[in-house]
Design a protein that fits this description.
926 residues, Multidrug efflux transporter AcrB transmembrane fold, 4-stranded antiparallel beta sheet, 32 helices, 11 strands, elongated, MMPL_dom, cell membrane, transmembrane helix
Length: 926
């Protein structure tokens, strides 16, 4: 590989314009991609396979109306006064204005729809129940009419017979029922007049009864509302038909007392049902409001003009109003600028009245926290480069190549973000790594070229050989970083995978630029890269005067056991706090004091309690089907009795009412250990009596599940990285002791880094001293990401120091002297590289974004520890203690291991033998 890289370096040096044009085209293409693409930054974190994500997906499927992004706006007076009636009315008007837009759920309209739906449901149910009762009574009416019809038919036949008998002069004896109807007209002459009238009346009654039976049949088959109307008409008809007391008595006797009483009643059945509906609606509305308020609500509803404003709660002291709103869809699916428009509208509405509106973090635009801090890191790196290389031109080249690499890598991440989910941390991490490794890798090659020039080579040959030797180490180190990052893909967490891919791509670009664009730039500069003055100084330099690096190596190896034990114990003590490390995701409460999201979090906690900043959504499935109000109330009461629950409220049910959704407000904040315990308690079987399945979701639950999943993966990932380290270092150094010691040193670095990060960001005492006013948790994906990144960077330093020591040993130096000599020759560039990385990572601690601050701190501390304590103190001491055994390798293993030639020894052999290998650039200068 070293020969191939040497040829590549020579070609780039000879054809600088061609190589630089290619990179310029890549850069221009990247800029064009960014300008023409729809850059998207994800605002939500999706972790497939976790319990909370599965429940959330189910809720979004069963209850799509609850799938939109939720947030809140806290209102308070700038002077801290109690909100006046005018203030409250203004807030209510502002809420109405906001919800009249296109992208915020109109809670007032939704409430009206719910009430209309509830009234319709109650009305339909009442009419159905009344209709069922009417069906029974109509059946009795039909029976009565049948009996009456038969009686009337018999009487009609009797009257017809009597009339015929009278016509023939036969005597007729009146029936008892006729006596009442005809009165004194019972002599033959009178009966001849009365019986035809009676026959006509009976015929009319029979016709009415037949018509009534038709009406009853129609009423029985009618819809509930129509049935009640027809029953009203039927009652009027029956009332007019029963003037015959005996017929009325027959009808009432056949129908039964209840039906007879109903028909005799003067009340309107429709009016009675409507009255029952109103009464039931009032009762259910009150019950629903209680269910939605919860068992133990904090604060009180905002009341304006006698009506509650949905979604707005006022603190008990009246100084704060919290408006909970829901967008019509997930923020990522809404037009860009949606939340900015909402916030601007609210601020313009209430600002003139002296009110302050503070939106929650979920409503604020997500922008990568990239600002002016990076320039500080680059400036520090420039100073280190000037001191190391002694030339402004030479110092500028690594910065230039690093900036080009970052522009391509980070720009590519932005340009392709419409095709994959990118969080705000993704480009920042790529920027961190791109700057750090881009400068360091170029520095390693440039430092080697400079040393070769000062040793007498021409700039062209020195560049070729530097790319073949140090470039080999750069490629190997970069490949190690990339492999460690790509190993994170096995976690199968989308946003972690995208961060790893973006960072790996940026590192790859940094490597490619270092071995192509940097030699091309050196070709443009030519021999001027090292001035004649510096060459003259090199010729007269007195190497007998011990340098600081040599004195350090001598001190470290003079009493190596002290160095080994001292570093091990110190790093072990620093790692102790890591045992209490709790992982989590930062919320608005972790933002800087005075920021809108922090103010919102503080005001919400003050008004509604700490848990209001991280409510849990509990989905309950029942096998029994449709729950009644008493069952819902019992569930709320049961949830409230669980330790750690401040309040529980009903948020809705699915269309088929098979899934109920409750909002559970914890007593503690979203990042507290008590809330995590509550989530686990709610998931225990049997916690809700009668529930077939209980799921917990919401941002807090998702963050907890994500943290648990990553925490479980850390030991496995560290084991994989440690195993990879052993294999890689064994291949490079052809030794067993050095890989084991170097890997153990890496684990010490990781432990100490995690310990310090936990102490600063996870504990109140040291955290507040360090300016972290809301300590508690370490970023959930930081440990595993930092482990991969630090492993790759640690291998850089191990390669450069280790190969230098190995080279001194190969040239015959004694064990201790090889350590001193190798350390002396390599430490200067390693110190410079480490300081550059620390400065680049360290400036990100100055940002306001808590995630970026933690990343910057962990990587800066990790580099400091690994470079100065592990690689430059512990490892020289271990190699010195081991002596010749440090380079021992079993013969059988030595035979099967490939020769990677990371240090470019084949180039040394070619030059020493003065044998061209297909490229004149490899021939020594005479």
């Amino acid at each position: 590989m070293s020969r191939l890289l040497a040829r590549l370096g020579a070609f780039s040096f000879r054809r600088p314009l061609l190589v630089l044009t290619v990179w310029l085209l890549v850069l221009v293409g990247t800029i064009g991609l960014v300008l023409t693409s729809d850059t998207r930054i994800e605002t939500s974190v999706k972790v497939d396979g976790t319990p909370a994500q599965e429940v959330l997906d189910e809720i979004q499927q069963e209850m799509p109306e609850a799938a939109g992004t939720q947030g809140s706006i806290a209102f308070n007076a700038a002077d801290g006064r109690v909100l006046s009636e005018d203030d409250r009315a203004l807030i209510a008007r502002t809420v109405r204005t906001v919800e009249s837009g296109d992208h915020v759920v109109d809670r007032m309209a939704m409430r009206a729809d719910q009430m209309a739906e509830l009234e319709s449901t109650i009305t339909d149910l009442a009419y159905e129940q009344a209709a069922e009762q009417m069906d029974e009574q109509l059946a009795q009416v039909e029976d009565g009419l049948s009996t009456l019809e038969a009686t009337l038919a018999d009487r009609h036949a009797t009257v017809v017979g009597q009339i015929a008998a009278l016509d023939q002069g036969a005597p007729v004896q009146p029936e008892p029922w006729q006596a009442e109807m005809m009165g004194s007209a019972q002599n033959p002459q009178s009966m001849l007049t009365a019986l035809p009238e009676l026959e006509t009346g009976l015929s009319s009654q029979m016709e009415q009864v037949g018509q009534m039976r038709t009406e009853v049949d129609a009423a029985q088959s009618a819809a509930p509302a129509e049935k009640l109307e027809q029953v009203s008409d039927l009652m009027a008809s029956l009332d007019g038909m029963t003037n015959d007391p005996e017929a009325a008595a027959l009808l009432h006797e056949a129908m039964g007392p209840d039906t007879a009483a109903m028909l005799a009643s003067s009340s309107d059945p429709i009016a009675e049902v409507d009255a029952a509906v109103r009464e039931r609606l009032e009762t259910m509305t009150a019950e629903l409001e209680n269910l939605q308020r919860g068992v133990a609500p904090t604060g009180e509803p905002l009341i304006v003009d006698g009506e509650a404003v949905p979604g707005v709660t006022v603190s008990d002291d009246g100084t704060i109003a919290v408006y909970s709103l829901q967008l019509t869809a997930q923020l990522d699916d809404l037009p860009s600028g949606t939340t900015e428009g909402i916030i601007s509208l609210v601020e313009s509405e209430v600002g003139s009245a002296g009110l302050v509106a503070s939106p929650s973090s979920s409503l604020l635009p997500i922008e990568p926290p990239i600002g002016g801090h990076e320039a500080v890191g680059v400036l520090v790196a420039a100073v280190v480069l000037v001191l190391t290389l002694g030339s402004l031109v030479a110092a500028g080249l690594p910065i230039l190549t690093a900036l080009v690499g970052v522009a391509i890598g980070v720009g590519g991440a932005f340009g392709l973000s419409e095709f994959y989910p990118m969080t705000s941390t993704t480009p920042v991490l790529a920027l961190m790594l791109g700057l750090a490794v881009g400068i360091d890798y170029a520095l390693f090659i440039l430092h080697k070229q400079r040393a070769l020039i000062l040793g007498g080579m021409s700039a062209r040959e020195a560049t070729s050989r530097a790319v073949g030797t140090s470039g080999s180490a750069v490629v190997f180190a970069g490949l190690t970083v990339v492999i460690a990052l790509l190993g994170l893909l096995i976690l199968d967490i989308t946003f972690v995978s995208t961060m790893a891919l973006a960072a790996a791509a940026t590192v790859t670009i940094a490597v490619l630029i270092s071995i192509t664009a940097l030699p091309a730039l050196l070709g443009l500069v030519g021999e001027r890269i090292v001035s004649l003055k510096h060459r003259g100084r090199a010729m007269i330099r007195d190497d007998s005067r011990p340098r600081a690096s040599r004195r350090w190596a001598q001190a470290t190896t003079a009493r190596p056991w002290i160095a080994v034990l001292g570093v091990t114990v110190a790093l072990g003590l620093l790692a102790v706090p890591a045992a209490d490390m709790r992982l989590g995701m930062p919320t608005g409460g972790a933002s800087p004091v005075g920021s809108p999201e922090r103010t919102n979090s503080d005001l919400t906690a003050q008004a509604l309690g700490e848990g209001a900043n991280g409510p849990l959504l509990v989905a309950v499935e029942r096998s029994g089907g449709d729950p009644d109000t008493h069952q819902l109330q019992a569930t709320l009461a049961g949830l409230t009795e669980i330790d750690g629950v401040a309040n529980a409220a009903l948020r809705g049910t699915s269309a088929d009412r098979s899934v109920e959704m409750y909002e559970v407000t914890p007593e503690s904040g979203p990042m507290s250990e008590e809330t995590e315990l509550l989530v686990n308690t709610l998931r225990e079987p049997g916690v809700i009596i009668g529930a077939e399945d209980v799921g917990v979701t919401g941002l807090t639950a998702i963050n907890i599940d994500l943290s648990e999943r990553l925490a479980d993966a850390i030991p496995v990932y560290l084991a994989v990285v440690a195993g990879l380290s052993l294999i890689v270092l064994t291949l490079v150094f052809r030794s067993l002791v050095i890989p084991i010691a170097a890997t153990a040193g890496f684990l010490l670095t990781i432990g100490a880094t995690f310990g310090l990060t936990t102490a600063v960001f996870g504990t109140a005492e040291l955290g507040r001293i360090a300016g972290v006013d809301q300590p508690g948790t370490v970023l959930s994906f930081l440990p595993i990401m930092a482990a991969g990144i630090l492993y790759g960077l640690a291998m850089d330093y191990q390669l450069f120091i280790g190969t230098s020591i190995r080279e001194a040993r190969v040239h015959g130096a004694a064990p201790r002297e090889s350590v001193i000599s190798g350390f002396t020759h390599s430490s200067r560039v390693v110190v410079a590289a480490a300081l550059i990385m620390v400065s680049v990572f360290g400036v990100f601690i100055l940002t306001d974004d808590m995630m970026v601050r933690q990343f910057g701190f962990a990587l800066a501390v990790g580099i400091l520890i690994d470079a100065f304590l592990v690689r430059m103190t512990l490892m020289p001491a271990v190699i010195s203690v081991a002596g010749r055994a440090a380079w021992w390798l079993p013969a059988w293993l030595d035979r099967i291991l490939p020769d990677l030639d990371v240090e470019g020894s084949t180039l040394d052999q070619d030059l020493e033998a003065n044998v061209p290998k297909g490229d004149s650039e490899l021939q020594p200068v005479r």
